[in-house]
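seq as requested:
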Amino acid sequence: VHDDHVYSEKKGTQKQDRTARSRILVCKVEFKQNIGHLGKTIVVCGTHGNNRTMKREWPKEWERYWDRLAGYIKEHNVKFLAGDFNMSLTEVVKQLKTRGITCDCMAW
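struct tokens:
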């Protein structure tokens, strides 16, 4: 869990400070038999980008999110990425490729 940015939200007549958070989870999954050319073990990543971060309300945090995600993918050799990228869904392949990760979008 990463705290992206603090923002204020109006609830009724009061303003409350909240924290926008994005999440990244990486784990290794082991199977009894081969998964195609990937073998019996595959590293997967599930992520959820905060909706305000993904709408680029905070451009620096948006860039940092992609840097963090690419870092985890490289560090753990992730083979399968699934995520809720909100308004940045069409940016996934482009952002990861600019950070040196070869990828394709299989479905949305």
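Strands lie at 2-11, 14-30, 41-48, 80-84.
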